[in-house]
């Protein structure tokens, strides 16, 4: 049986005016165990972390006991820079801790400091030894903090929000590093964070701090966007399954081997440049076009298009346009019934339009209002999946923002799944739970929307996000149309990709599944072929190789 390293009994911590943050808390941590403590901000996580680390706070009153059976506790905090002395070189800060804790000479401490920097992945260590903290990036500073904590040879490491101030890609590196260091040193870890997914990925046990009490959470968190409840998927089961879909127009392959699933209540963003096959895909899903091969399983789909001016009958009033949709589905009689009147009122309400606008004709509405009307018409038919094809194009920024909020509300209230097709990556990422990127008829990358934005893997996805940020990228001579030719061999992106090899020109990459910080990533690029990634995929997760 593993030995107990830390035992907390009946711990109560209160601030002035009897504001209790921790109440009668009991906790037990074994040697080498990794425990995650999650909770919302203000739940008292940092107060608890400090108490567990044995750091006193004069403002607090504490009762109960925290018994540590090990030799040393180390702590790393959220804001790495504030933990380092800005006026001291890294080597001097490390040497100071080493001389004190390991009782060694300055010369020995220098060598050990260098080893520690290498252990936390800082290369070349010699160069960083001579740096000041401000010369290092946030991720580097956090690595240095970890090296400082390790300098005291702790048997328990307490990490309080160690990655909150870092971007997604660096977060993943730091968490991976923490896991490796804990494993190599047989170190126990208490990871305190609001980031449930990261904690679940790293820790063997997860507890939630709520109203001063710790409750054990069973089962791992589902992968998804971190810290943004709006963007989390709300449902279960699939509303759309596409398998090995193929479609061509003459010699032009428009859809090639598309596999895609959308879950209930999920918003899936589909990106890609014009001509990559996005709209054809929408048409195939809604049966407006027939696929040449493959399987489409979809439940109650409605589609709204970009051109709202042609979507409604101009000679009918708004209400007549909506009633017409009901007539097509339920028949003339039902479309004239009080039930239909009620449904039309509700649909207009859902899209936040006044019922008295029902008598106006399309020409009397603005672009944004027309978009709401087409949305109301789609919602009338109670779809399970709504496909929005470039619906924000042509709308001004304010209207776009209102439409985004409206879609999010409708998804939440109606439990609706949305396939949102667009080329504005920022909007797609903001709205979506998961995102896919199409190129030359292929789905080249798919994964959690935030993960794709912060750590794109495919060279094309990377380029799209760089363009979206306004960065300069090289011009391409090849168009997706050329790349979709049926006689083309090799990777569809080979003509534009800076990483092209001979193999890329001769062979088309398969679709490889890998694990990233937020779940699963599917990618069509040899750089992420399973054999190439074996070492990383057997670890916790991987990140971009380009
Ligand atoms: S398979 Fe080759 S050409 Fe295609 S994206 Fe990957 S590296 Fe580039």
Automatic annotation (TrEMBL):
The keyword Transport applies. Residues 6-236, 240-465 form the ABC transporter domain. The keyword Ion transport does not apply. SUPFAM superfamilies: P-loop containing nucleoside triphosphate hydrolases. It holds the Pfam family ABC_tran. One of its GO terms (biological process) is peptide transport. Its main location: membrane. It comes from the Bacteria. GO terms for cellular component: plasma membrane. It is a peripheral membrane protein. Keywords: ATP-binding, Cell membrane, Membrane, Nucleotide-binding, Transport. Belongs to the ABC transporter superfamily. This is ABC transporter ATP-binding protein.
